[in-house]
Amino acid sequence: MANYRRCYIPGGSYFFTVVTERRAPILANDAARDLLRSAIRACQQQWPFTVDALVVLPDHLHAILALPPGDADYSIRWGFIKKYFTQHWLAANGPEQSISSSKQQQRRRGVWQRRFWEHALRDERDYAKHLDYLHYNPVKHGLVTSAADWPYSSFHRFVNEGVYPA
């Protein structure tokens, strides 16, 4: 088994990519996006953090999260969000991907990929680079021709705050 090394910086800001199982487009509907929002809020009540930026695409999401001082446990937060989403999604008869019997024995479900990708943001330049990547992602995937055209993104908040031009 691979030995994954993660960078834990208390109070740090991190860029994340979280992907659905086999890139199924389960996040392409309002019910799923509302449920994801509820999962994030429920997690924030138990383990505070700030969502600096977020974009939700049909089969994955990117987020920049900031953790409170002294706290570096983003893994527990993503575990909670994915579990909460999965439980409520399946309870609402949301579809899941078929999974192998070994994954079933591990109590996995066919909603999210097991892991996520994270990057500890080192400085303002690194933060800005990942912020741009996050907001440009719907264009990169051919979903829209302009970041301003994708409604499921924090891009619009950054325009309102004067960070980006419209």
Please report the total strand number as a whole number. Answer: 4
Indicate the CATH class. Answer: Alpha Beta
Determine Rg (CA atoms, Å): 16 Å
Largest sheet: 4 strands, antiparallel
List the helices and strands and how they pair.
Layout: E1 13-19, H1 30-46, E2 50-56, E3 60-66, H2 74-91, H3 101-105, E4 117-120, H4 124-140, H5 155-160
Antiparallel strand pairs: 1-3, 1-4, 2-3
Organism: Methylomonas albis
Protein name: Transposase
Domain Transposase IS200-like: 9-137
What does this structure look like?
- With 166 residues, this protein is α+β, with helices and mostly antiparallel strands.
- The chain has one domain: Transposase IS200-like (Alpha-Beta Plaits, 2-Layer Sandwich).
- 38% of the residues lie in helices and 15% in strands.
- The chain is built from 5 helices and 4 strands, in the order βαββααβαα.
- It has a 4-stranded antiparallel sheet with strand order 2-3-1-4, covered by helices on one side.
- α1 packs across α2.
- The mean pLDDT is 92.
- This is Transposase.
- InterPro entries: RAYT_transposase, Transposase_17, Transposase_17_sf.
